[in-house]
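ok posting inputs for the adenosine-5'-triphosphate job
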Amino acid sequence: MHSAINVSGLNKSFGGKQVLFDLGLAVEPGEMVALIGASGSGKSTLLRHLAGLACADGGAGSSIQVLGRSVQSAGRLNGQVRRLRADIGYIFQQFNLVGRLSVLSNVLLGRLGRMPRLRGSLGLFNHEEKLSAMAALERVGLAEFAHRRASTLSGGQQQRVAIARALTQEAEIILADEPIASLDPESARKVMDILADINATDGKTVVVTLHQVDYAARYCERVVALKDGRVHYDGPVQALSGAFLNELYDGDLDAGLLLPKPAQHGASHIPLSLVAA
Ligand SMILES: Nc1ncnc2c1ncn2[C@@H]1O[C@H](COP(=O)(O)OP(=O)(O)OP(=O)(O)O)[C@@H](O)[C@H]1O
Ligand SMILES: [Mg+2]
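and the output
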């Protein structure tokens, strides 16, 4: 069987400044992997490349495959990447819900990548799709909020709606970029419990970037640590000793490591079509 994720020779530069260096990574189906590293180490950039939301530098050896299909190679996106994205659920720190729409409508947006464009653009969801969206909301404990405006929910609830959207999408892989960084500990725990349940019960592959290393330790067996755009460590989470972390974060252990990171603005610049696809 093919890997869930297979990256090799990934280089990325922004305006002449290289931020990812010859990066390689393989994730097997059903794994739940924590991606950690200091701010600016390249975690979000890596995740965006996996989903085909960013294109690597050219270079013959550069390739990214997800679910055995090419997302990009040699710095060129696969022309079929939209179809592949339907199998990738992407969870953002700032949830990326459409605030003025109902919770149920937001969850249904997960179907967009799997239905004809016209029916999707008219929002014509069939009964089966609505049932599946309701089941997803039930699973994240928010069925009673189905008809509320998404913007009226708490941050933790909105993140659970975003996960319900990925469930309704029937994504095979969940890429979650700092899903709990803006949440209080109780909400963070609920969100991580749901991600862990989707991994354990449904066998979905999960890659989650986390600032809070204690959550990585609690929820993931494997951790990949980036440092300055390179894989610094890839292995069992038990290896995360104090000395290791001190080195990984260059002694900056208080930098939001165990504390929620303040909300970042700018996460919602990602077009809705990419989120829902
Ligand atoms: N669109 C962009 N244009 C220019 N530079 C960028 C862009 N996106 C990322 N970078 C740079 O790439 C590097 C890696 O950024 P990235 O956002 O991937 O880090 P990160 O590990 O996710 O950090 P954080 O923990 O703060 O989210 C940083 O130096 C960042 O400034
Ligand atoms: Mg980031």
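notes: Residues 258-277 have pLDDT under 50 and may be disordered. The pocket of adenosine-5'-triphosphate (ligand 1) is lined by residues 14, 19, 37, 39-45 (CB under 6 Å).
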